[in-house]
């Protein structure tokens, strides 16, 4: 038998008799069964022969006859027991080899925000607020809570996780880590919701009318002009290095559940406490249309799909437009997780990637490519592969991309409605 660990709760075929008994008691048992059958047959033959000619030489088995048969029969029984045990061990090894080391205990179903009940929405908002009071686990400067941990990790890795082949895989796991925190540490029972912005950008209606901005059952509305002057907070150097788009920082959000929320990190790479700021701008809605999504989903390879969805520094896309249409911290490459809507936006991007994967699932579960560094020259360019490691500082252990290609499997364990 091999030394592999047995998974708790797994039914496997084993003998009820201990292994010591299998080796010694079982052979004796087989031996005496065979001897008993032999003796019965011998008696029948003897009685029949005596009836015919009363031959005195045909006598019942003596003690000596018994012992002469015992040794070879016992050897045969030992061999039989060994064969039986070997087959059972082979069955055990086979079944254990088919059991994954870790597997999903259940599958979460991620739903679009507007489909949730008001009670469900409130439970999610409460869980987000809970993370803002959980103790920090990273050591980045300025961090004061678990919510800050997520923003800090994103700020410090932003330069290496955007405009690269692992952009989608990294954020897929990042959102999952956040979802797990809400469930394990804040008592939230559901899955993280997503925001399908294609439902809010048609018929010339402002995206501000989306249910996600509802002050009662959503995340609050736009920033109020005149409530904050970002230019007085940041130097020209930090504004430039952090790629801060000043027009998007209109003002503080003053309604909804995050009206009084204080952000400890950002804007950009700065570490300045400030209010949650937004600056909703409908000029970015064109790339959030169904037509734009259909174009991305029609791409034949992962890299072409990723580029279409993520875009580039000078090219509008679903990813960038989803950030800039809301503006404020969410509109910044670095400090965007300061706005709780960050996770709904990226859950939707992940949903679109999964939808693209399912269009040719067998091939696309292993389709990954793209450069590992955002601005690498062709001479120094290396491509992302399935064994490329995704890192999240102290939020979670590093993991290879191949482990998160299928959302239905561990450690992700979710699907989209």
From TrEMBL:
Q: Keywords assigned by UniProt?
A: Copper, Membrane, Metal-binding, Transmembrane, Transmembrane helix
GO molecular function per UniProt: metal ion binding; oxidoreductase activity
Q: Does the keyword Transmembrane helix apply?
A: yes
Where does the record place the Tyrosinase copper-binding domain?
A: 162-179, 339-350
In terms of InterPro entries, this protein maps to: Di-copper_centre_dom_sf, Tyrosinase/Hemocyanin, Tyrosinase_Cu-bd
Ranges that cross the membrane? 21-41
The reply on keyword Glycoprotein is no
User: Per UniProt, what is one Pfam family of this protein?
Assistant: Tyrosinase
SUPFAM superfamilies, per this entry?
A: Di-copper centre-containing domain
- Provide the protein name: Tyrosinase copper-binding domain-containing protein
Provenance organism = Agrocybe pediades
